[in-house]
Amino acid sequence: MSGLAPANTAVPVDEQAVDRRSALLRAAAPVLTDLTERIGDAPYGVILSDRDSRVVDIQARARPLHREFDGLGAVFGGVFLEETTGTNSIATAHELRSGVAVRGEEHYLDRFKHLSCYGHPIFHPITRRLLGVVDITCRTADDSPLLAALVQRAVRDIEERALADSPRSRRRVFEAFTLATTGHDRAVLALAGDLVLSNSAAADLVAPADHHLLAQLTAGAGPVRLTLQSGSEVSVLARRVGDGADGTVYEFRRIDVPSRAEGTAGTGPVYIGGGPGTGRTTAARTALSAPVTEFDGAAAATDPQAWLRALALADPARPLLVEDIDRLPTDCATRLLGVVDRPAGLVLTGPVASVLEGAAAALAAACARHVDLLPLADRRTELADLATGMLRRLPGGDRVRLTPSALAALAAQDWPGELHELRSVLSSTLRSRSAGDLTVSDLPERYRVSPQRRDLGPLERAEHDAIVAALHAAGGNKARAAAALGISRTTLYSRLRSLRIG
């Protein structure tokens, strides 16, 4: 697609665009020099590229390797993007934002196929922006699996130096944010000028539109109650960092606000509508103070006369809960219409009111208040709380914790089985790990979906699922997966990035 053929030999060079005094070079130069010293005269070369995938440093003690790099275009300012050099550890690590090993024939350009290279991206510890890529390259005959560990260690050291090289005020904000999030599940957000740090709990809770509201809070004044853009009620504790000019760290605690169904007993009839498994019964019982008298529409359909006699004998001092009113025979629904203003309270459940017909529709219309329970797939922002609460109620659930990545994977599901399906998944996950953190790999296999799948359209979702299935069948080997799908590896990488398949 980029006009690049395997036989191409020219690598574009943009030496003038390289910043020779960049923060990346300041952080990386001592680390790469030390790495080169440790490698010694062994035939390995170390290459550093910047955020635009331009080579900014090359180090190798072995002179023949230096000459070989020159012949391959691995020179200062050389542009190693996939569209200019195809698959290799610099370009592909830059594209995928993850570490890669590219060996021999896995390279796209013919002239690289006698090499093995290991690349790993560098991210700024505070901003999480891509800074560049570190690569170790050697001839395939000299390949060693230990090279991947060397590259990763070098990247960690560079990132630590990048943090130390950051303005002192930003380091203080980062340290305060890290301290606030360590060992706690609460939502934490830090604001410092154009810098925003957020853990996953805060990302789900706080919208960018809330930042201006948070900036008005007085630090040190104790928790303040706020209503966020999402409608969530929270208690916010603001703490200034440093002398107050560095930034502010905010800690959030959700405030449980009674749902629309709660507290309605005795104030008029309530209709709770939703699909099977959306939690209608739980919401209805929450709306009524115990003890209650419960009636089932399905039972009325089986024996209407017995159901009517039981209704007539119901204690007038106790609230009524009538479930599945869409299954009530007409005479039962009509009789129920006569007691909708029952002083003790009445709550009815069934499907969404818009699909009701006849006497059942009249019953729902007679209710002063309606509560609509959305399908679980449309309650993505609530899923973390729902899953965590449900997990705690399961045997042994208090000994485990759902990690943000696992919660994100769960939130990506369609949940045709609603809450029953979620409970089944959590129970199955508990059987695979009874203590500690539950990660994506602990979930049943079909639920280990990339978190962005829920945002895709039908065609993209089908493409997503086909690629995931091909990768799984190929054991993660992208070359085999691309061949099975009938596409090139470059196209596969492009779709992986576009569809955000991790």
UniProtKB/TrEMBL annotation:
Sigma-54 factor interaction domain segment(s): 371-431
- Domain of life of the native organism: Bacteria
Record-linked PROSITE patterns: SIGMA54_INTERACT_4
Does the keyword ATP-binding belong to this entry? yes
Q: Which InterPro entries match?
A: AAA_lid_NorR (IPR058031), GAF-like_dom_sf (IPR029016), Homeodomain-like_sf (IPR009057), HTH_Fis (IPR002197), P-loop_NTPase (IPR027417), Sigma_54_int (IPR002078)
> Which UniProt keywords are given for this protein, alphabetically ordered?
ATP-binding, Nucleotide-binding, Transcription, Transcription regulation
The name this protein carries in UniProt is Sigma-54 factor interaction domain-containing protein
What is the originating organism of this protein?
Tsukamurella pseudospumae
